Structure formats: C-alpha cells, structure tokens
Amino acid sequence: MNSESHVNVRVTRQFSVSPERVFDAWLDPVMIGKWMFGPAYPEREEEVVCISLDPRVGGSFSFVVRRQGQEIDHVGEYLEIDRPRRLVFTWGVAGEEGSSRVIIDIVPLEKGCELTLTHELHQDWADYVSRTENAWTKMLDVLAATLS
C-alpha cells in the first residue's frame, strides 16, 4: 500500500509479560479465541465458531465468529513472522473486496514489553479510523488481562 492510498491506525500497549508470550498469543488459536473474539465482548453478542491458522509466511488464517446470528469469517495471510519482534498479516472478511494490513512490533522492556499495532486501512475506510482504534485498544486490553 502506498501512503497516499491508506490511513494508519496506531495503538501502543505495554504488557507485564515477556515479548514471547505476547507474540505467541497472536498465533495460538485457543488464545485468539480468548482475547480477540467471543465472550470477552458481550456487546457484540458473539461466539467463536472456528479458528484455524497456518502460522508461516504465506500461510493463512480464518477466524469464524457468529455475531448476532450472522457468521463472519475474518481472513488473512501472514506476510512476515519474526518471533518475538514482528508479525505482519493481511486482514479482511471473506466474501468482501479488499483487505488491509496489520503490523505488530514488539520491543522488550525492563519488565515486560511494549506492542505497537499499526493497521493500514485503505483510504475508503478513513471514516472507520476511530472505531478501528477503539476496537484494537479494547482487544489489547483484553489480551493483557488474559496474559496476566
């Protein structure tokens, strides 16, 4: 994506656990079901149907949830995996045009680590920047609580 065709959402969060634990939570289907989707978000009325992933560069993922009676399949491809420092993947919904890109950078701290998430959205989604930032912020808060 060139810089003229997208807008960035950036969220930073500190964790009290190791970079490895934070990184691995992005590639573990059981953990993803605990912090990214499902019961942690009662306002979504959502349940996890199936989470599958092939965590290698070029591998794909599929996170199927049932939200308010409708199944939504979040899909993507892993573009870069550098444990425990960096994870880059595409993000989209099956059956919809286009995808975005998510970049996870993790740096160790004296106690724990800091994660910076950058979500590159196509310019057409500029009206959703605030909503996307709020969603990722909440997910990272739930991830921190799940890991502590």
From TrEMBL:
Q: Which domain of life is it from?
A: Bacteria
What is the protein's given name? Answer: Activator of Hsp90 ATPase homologue 1/2-like C-terminal domain-containing protein
Q: Which InterPro entries match?
A: ASHA1/2-like_C, START-like_dom_sf
> Which ranges of the sequence are coiled-coil?
none
Q: Which family would the database say this protein is a member of?
A: Belongs to the AHA1 family.
What's one Pfam family here? Answer: AHSA1
Q: Please tell me the species this chain comes from.
A: Marinithermofilum abyssi
Q: Which positions fall inside the Activator of Hsp90 ATPase homologue 1/2-like C-terminal domain?
A: 17-147
